[in-house]
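dumping the sequnces here before i forget
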Amino acid sequence: MSLIDIILSKYKVDIGDYVKIRLSDGSIIKGLIMPKHIYSKEDILVIKLDNGYNIGIKVSRIEDIKKDVPPTYEGLHIEFERRYIQGLPRVLLLGVGGTILSRVDYRTGGVKSAVSAEEIIEILPEIQDIAEIHTRVIMNKYSEHLTPSDWSKIANEVYRGIREGYDGVIVLHGTDTLGYTAAALSFAIQKSPIPIILVGSQRSSDRPSSDAALNLISAVYIAGHAPFAGVYVVMHASSSDNKIAVHLGTRVRKNHTSRRDAFQSIDILPVAYVDENLNIKINYTDGIYKRDKNRSPDFHPKFSRNAALIKFYPGMHPEILKSILGLNIKALVIEGTGLGHLGEHLFEVLETLIREGVHVFVTSQCIWGRVNLNVYDTGRILLKIGLIPLGNMLSETAYVKASWILGNFGEDELPTLMPTNIAGEITSRSPVKDLRCI
Amino acid sequence: MSLIDIILSKYKVDIGDYVKIRLSDGSIIKGLIMPKHIYSKEDILVIKLDNGYNIGIKVSRIEDIKKDVPPTYEGLHIEFERRYIQGLPRVLLLGVGGTILSRVDYRTGGVKSAVSAEEIIEILPEIQDIAEIHTRVIMNKYSEHLTPSDWSKIANEVYRGIREGYDGVIVLHGTDTLGYTAAALSFAIQKSPIPIILVGSQRSSDRPSSDAALNLISAVYIAGHAPFAGVYVVMHASSSDNKIAVHLGTRVRKNHTSRRDAFQSIDILPVAYVDENLNIKINYTDGIYKRDKNRSPDFHPKFSRNAALIKFYPGMHPEILKSILGLNIKALVIEGTGLGHLGEHLFEVLETLIREGVHVFVTSQCIWGRVNLNVYDTGRILLKIGLIPLGNMLSETAYVKASWILGNFGEDELPTLMPTNIAGEITSRSPVKDLRCI
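..and the predicted 3d for all of it:
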């Protein structure tokens, strides 16, 4: 039993109760008892005040806790008025789900998907000073539950926003598979006339240390005002609230389970940074289209279920690879080791897969760097068997790309299109050196 | 056709030929024509001189190339004498394979596993001034071909070296699965009285930019002279030749396909750094045993084939998970997204697996950070189904650990031992902040 549990049971109150607390200095605090979370200290009770802010109270300072009557609904909310300022760029917020659209569930202590895209404006009314905000809810799903057909749905809604003349479209999305969806939109909508920004948050917007505010404000600014177009992920670039990164949609990965700066561009710098005063610093413009509402995008929104992604490990069971036969899978991406190698005990099953019409592609579980099957004799055997190496394409992007090629162009296009750069997924330049740390 | 190909065909010579080259300044160079490799420039012909060194010659400086008679075998080699200096610590080199034991195949331009552990001393005789070197060849395999039974074999040979009284044991190993084998040895030989060092190289020792020399020299120094014991990976800590990292065996990962500093400690700093003057800087000592030849190690060298590792992806086919039924797999490690989440369309098959007696564990494909299934309602469902989260254990280490538990203690020990720290595979401390870069 934790210290907080003991104090709650002593005063017969519970998480989610509205209470009146008397402290040792005589002062009175009223508010909602918040659940303990992974970052909270043992001896701190967190209370949500009527003004929406959370405060922490040291348990030793508490003299008494009593249940109290909460103020009326209105009193619990910050005053909110929907406003449209003339002359601002028009930005469409599309709600998909995830932590950025979540609140703490005071009963369970966990986080629930609950906030609509419209409510996000209520929480962050200042985004209305950056752009004229319109909202639309597509679905409300945690991102780990999304499937290729959801990518099609999101792509169609983004495209609808482009045709409706918006200056930027923002997708509010869970961070877990944000990288996969960013790759999907990068392939589905090429040469976009406007910025398409995917944004999420690592901590829900009602938490004291939430990254939602700065991420969303920056996303709205990039969507409405950036000089460049295309598909990007906009998230914290450091653990402090002063730098946001704009990552290319095909080269971004969630590399930390909980940090605010979990997302990293792989083998390249982010396309741009945004500081807390909303100054944009562009790192490079190669391959980046300018914002131009007269340009028509190439639109191919379908994604097939006939692609798969499998990670190799030493002693891997060949039967796992073989299991994809009978599932109508046409494209298999294997995450090899190092330069793209695979154990020799798999060579036979790989030959079988290829003979049965599966196109097999190789990426690396190293994450950074490019595969090369020409350096070692063992790699050249894989080439002879018929495996196709994918340069420095991320495994996740490769899986999405295979699903996209199958959805729109058919399996015959796989061998040509997969190893060809379409949306920045293979970079020919040397990796940017200062990106990785040691 | 490349510039080099043109010049070679002009003078009717080929890669691997021993030639005499006349330059525009009248000077004469004799040596073996080396193959172009991925790092060589378009207009540079690389020649291996009789003294073993490679030099690059600008094509525009070449006046003439003629085939010549190579010197006798002895002349091609640096003078080499096996020497044992009294009073030095005794270090055993165990040859497993990989690039560090490889040479360029001059005919194909690729790299072949070819050098024995004894020949390594011939290439790097100076390691004999650091320790009294003994060598033993266990096998000669690229590391992607290793299986759990190879880990057992390596563990047995290392243990034999400990019992024979060596002051340190070095395993010369391919880099592709070096992290997996390091984890395997960390579990198989606990409380080791001496340092057990795994070392590899990203470029073969006869290449101009090879990292083999500094890696091996540092490995020998740590094995023979470091004050600490245990299982470590010793590799470049930066892309220049002035810093080597000593990584804990259970928390190290190959994060780049080709860079010399490809290996990184995850969520912690390397245990120590070594500079080019062989000064050791120890970063922490928590959980690290001192070198003490009187200590008997805990030795459990078996590894089972009844564990598997599968990476989740959005829209993953449940049939791939189901394929492990019938393979007698008792432990499945799934790489979830973010805090360890999995798509809801897999819940049913996960229930089936657990009902059929498979123990299912969750790690994160984020690599950095720890899983936590208590934050979101979707995570709590996974807990209810019976999945066991593994903190910040690396997926690769988790797979190795499951194979080790099954090999030595049986499946009933999986639920208790898997989420319990044994060899540094789960750290409770906050991640070291300066390790990741943004």
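The CA atoms of residues 192 and 355 of chain B lie 39 Å apart.
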